[in-house]
Amino acid sequence: MPNDALFIAATGQHVGKTTVCLGLLEGLCQRLGAAAVGFTKPVGQQHVEIESGLHVDKDSALFKDHFQLTCEYEDMSPVMVPAGFTRRFIDGEVTVEELRIKIKSAFERVCSSHSYTIVEGTGHVGVGSIIDLNNAQVASLLGLEMVIIASGGLGSAFDELAQNVALCKLHGVHVRGVILNRVIEDKQAMIMDYFSRALARWDIPLVGCIPYNEYLSTPCMRDFELLFDTPLLSGESARYRHFSEIRLVATTYEVYRELIAQHQLVITPAKREDIIMATLTAHRQAKLRDGKDLRGGMILTGRHPPSPAILKEIREAKIPILYANMPS
């Protein structure tokens, strides 16, 4: 196994694989520098289109943008599985051998130019089996050990983990450790004790627990950029800002003005210029008073985008705001 790479998998979708990869990349970039850290997601499902027109996995695009990674997009996202791909595979239009070559070649290029590489899987360990490229098969192909992220419970979390570990054993992949995500804080000591003892039957260590955090469970503006496939109008430096409250505003200006608070994401039609200006004014006043704005953001909706005059005000305010061409 390469000493400079690790495969991160999970027991299911939305379990915390991307969050763990984010944390690992942050730590590696601090220790080694971004230029020394590599990342690849061999098999992706959800894609975004970058400026060159290339479709790449959304996590690969996110990490390259956020950490300023030096890997090429093509190597960070070598195989995409869009709608209809599995039928093409079964029909013989695409072969597993050509996919394996793409994955391995991309991985080797990333590893050759970086000191340490994080490899992110897709979904649970068995995802990709229909094209003979599930996570265990890919880890085996690349000669990597695996860390599996599991939900922060006990019984059901262990049952889910057992299925994934069995698939790793089938393909000769060593599970280096398990990380539990979203563990209720007052149960953490108990969960760590019992889960560690349960894992002992497989000789797999519990690497650690990530406590449940409501902040991490809420979307940031970058998530909305990807969801609506539209860039921010302003506040690009705050695109990873999270919010404690999401407000859909259809009330009067007078009522809204009295309820403006910190950490709010305000959703309102782009034609509600009174609401937009009230929000921008509140942020400006907070910055003059406290040295920082209200840490909020806005999503503007409707058939018509903001007027040029309002757009000028938005860009000067420098808080994260985007326009989505759809009704509220």
Q: First CA to last CA: what distance?
A: 51 Å
Roughly what percent helix? 25-40%
Number of helices: 12
The radius of gyration is 22 Å
Amount of beta strand? 15-25%
CATH level-3 fold name of the largest domain: Rossmann fold
Element order, helices and strands?
Answer: EHEEEEHHEHHEHEHEHEHEEHEHEHE
The major beta sheet can be summarized as:
6 strands, parallel
Q: Count all strands and give the number.
A: 15
Q: Architecture of the largest domain, CATH level 2?
A: 3-Layer(aba) Sandwich
Stretches where pLDDT falls below 50 for ≥5 residues?
A: none
- What is the C-level CATH assignment of the largest domain? Alpha Beta
Give the spatial strand order of the biggest sheet. Answer: 2-7-1-8-9-10
Query: What's the average pLDDT?
Result: 93
The coarse silhouette is globular
Briefly note the structural class of the backbone.
alpha/beta
Number of domains: 2
Fourth-tier CATH superfamily name of the largest domain: P-loop containing nucleotide triphosphate hydrolases
